[in-house]
Amino acid sequence: xxxxxxxxxxxxxxxxxxxxxxxxxxxxxxxxYGGAMWVFLSSAPKVYTLMVSDLEQARKFYEExxxxxxxxxxxxxxxxxEQTLGVASLDPLYIPSAISYNQNQPPRPSDGLWxxxxxxxxxxxxxxxxxxxxxxQRHVCFDRECxxxxxxxxxxxxxxxxxxxxxxxxFLVKDYTGQVIELAEISPK
Length: 189
What we know:
Blueprint: H1 10-19, H2 22-42, E1 46-52, H3 55-65, E2 69-70, H4 75-78, H5 81-84, E3 113-118, E4 121-127, E5 137-141, H6 144-156, E6 161-165, E7 170-174, E8 180-185
Parallel strand pairs: 1-4, 5-8
Antiparallel strand pairs: 1-5, 2-3, 3-4, 6-7, 7-8
């Protein structure tokens, strides 16, 4: 209680009671929770998803040829926040129907391969792409920036490649076994 000889601070007494009421505490907790979620989600790495025709061949290519380091599955994938927000229905790469899994058990976001592409950028590789012409391995992606970063890495390690198209980005790469891999941007129409 504020003494009566300080009338200009009387509003502080009412505010203090309001803050520590049940409603005030709930609002304070919800505000803190919202702030914590914002920090958690804003610090989450950007994830590019790449769909490949052969997951084991892709593992060898990305680990041995492009020398990408294996990454942990980001926490926001563990909590499945894309699916709970309804975003998965907009992007078929989040839960592709082509991933082989037990029909009684839905696919997990951690399925596939995870690599660190840049400091706060990860590459999530999943199976499901069709083979290209001449049974060529295909790696397809909706994100142009992802393929540009992969092309830059191919050039850095002096891996043989042939640029087929700039728009949408499409290039061929020869891996260490002589297998030709087509990396293609899928542009939504």
